[in-house]
Amino acid sequence: METLQFPLFFLLLCGLCGALAVIDIRRGIIPDGLNLAIAGLGLARTIVTADALAGVEAIRDAIITGVICWLLRRLYFAWRKIQGLGLGDVKFLAAAAVWVGLSGIPMLILIAALAALAAAGGLQIAGHSLTRQTSLPFGPFLAAGLLAALALQQWLGVI
Fold first, then answer.
1. How many alpha carbons lie under 13 Å from residue 149 in its C-beta half-sphere?
2. C-alpha 8: how far from chain center
3. How confident is the model at residue 51 (pLDDT cuts 50, 70, 90)?
4. Average pLDDT of 9-19?
5. Cα–Cα distance between 91 and 152 in angstroms, integer?
6. Is the confidence at residue 58, as pLDDT, over 90?
7. In principle, which of 4, 47, 58, 86 could form an S-S bond with 98, CB 3.0–4.6 Å?
8. Is the dihedral of CA 119, 80, 69, 32 positive or negative?
9. Are the beta carbons of 95 and 62 closer than 8 angstroms?
10. 85 in helix, strand or coil?
């Protein structure tokens, strides 16, 4: 049964991340309910596969990640006078930290940023006009980054 635990949790996470991506593309938001579901599922996985203390550590990682990302969001707004990262993205990163821990967040963000850069490049090549004011939903890329970082941790021992 233990060998099936991770694939089952991963499959459920894929469903949540897919829903998040579709909603963010269509509406430009990441619903709080989805962020809570992702965090809750990650917490359940942590407690089932480890113990309650690991669950407390996962919550700590989520809080630290959320605070750091929120502060970076505020600093960017103070500097540029525009929002560079949505609050839903900040909440998602906090929820993702429950899954990958603090050490996995930089890899998640790197994967998401590279994927978004590739998508922007693809749009540019396809003839879409992109300017400094162009907004691209980042949620789908963050979701892909979470799934990739988690897979790298679980199956390849990376991070």
1. 27
2. 19
3. very high
4. 98
5. 22
6. yes
7. 58
8. negative
9. yes
10. coil
pLDDT at 159 over 90: no
- Using CB atoms within 10 A of its CB, is residue 15 exposed (0-12), middle (13-18) or buried (19+)? exposed
Please, what sign has the CA dihedral across residues 126, 132, 137, 143?
A: positive
- Per DSSP, helices labelled H in 28-51 are 32-49
Extract the tokens encoding 50: 């480890």
Domain ranges of the chain: 2-156
- With a CB cutoff of 8 Å and minimum separation 6, the contacts of 136 are 116, 119, 120
CA angle 114, 7, 32 (to 5 degrees): 60
Instruction: Tokens for 68, please give them.
Output: 């750091």
Rounded CA separation 122/84 (Å)? 21
Render pLDDT for 87-144 as a digit per residue (tens, 0 to 9).
999 999 999 999 999 999 999 999 999 999 999 999 999 998 888 778 889 999 999 9
Structure tokens at 7: 């694939």
